[in-house]
Design a protein that fits this description.
The protein is mainly α and 220 residues long. 85% of the residues lie in helices and 0% in strands. It contains 7 helices and no strands. The protein is elongated and about 65 Å long.
Length: 220
Amino acid sequence: MLANYEEKLSEIKNVIITIAEGLLKSNQLIVEGLQDCDEASFTEAKSHIKNVSNIVKEIDNNIITTLALHSPEAKDLRRMVSYLKITNELLRASSNTRNFIKGFTEECKNVDSKIVNDYAIPMQKSTVDAIKYTVDMISLDCVDETQECFNKVVIAENKTDDLYEMIETELFKQKPKETEFTKFHKMLVVLRRSEKIADRAMSIASLLLYVNNGGEIHRV
C-alpha cells in the first residue's frame, strides 16, 4: 500500500512539474516574441501550454482518488491538498499566458518600442524568474532551500509589480488624447497579464512553502 502511494505521489508530482516547465518555456518564448513582435515565437509559446485544462482535470481526479484511497496524514496530506490548489494556479497562469500572447499579438504594432524595451521586456523577464524559482521549489524537500527559493520568487514578483506601475506612469506621462485613450487602455490590459502570471507563480510558491514548512498559507 505504501509503495503504491509513493508511486502515485511521484506520478502526480511529475505531471505538475511537466505543466510548470511548459509554462516556464512558454513565458521564456514570450520574451523573445516581445523583442521584435515575433509571431513565430508567440505561436510556439502557445504550444507549450496546450491542453492544460484537460491535463489539470485528469491530475485533479488522480489527487482526489489518491486522497480517498490512502488517507495520508500530516505533511503528506498538506502536500496532496496543496497539489490540488497548485493545479488550479497553473491553470490560471496558463490562461493568463495565453491571453497575454493573444492580446500582445493584436496590439504589438501599436505599442511604443520604448515601453517594450525599457519596461515590458524586463517585466516579462522577472515573470520568467518567478516561474523558474517556483519550478525549482517543486522538487525541494529541504526547509532552508525551499525558503531561499521562495524569497527569490518574492523578489521577482515584486519587481513585476514595480515595473507595471512604471509602465502606467510612463504611459500617462504621455497624456493620451481622448481618441488615443482606448489604445493606451488596451496596452495596459495586455501588459497587466504578465504581472498576473507572476502573481500566480507567487501563489504556487506560497503553497510549496506551506508543504515543507507548515504554518499558514501565504495568499496572493
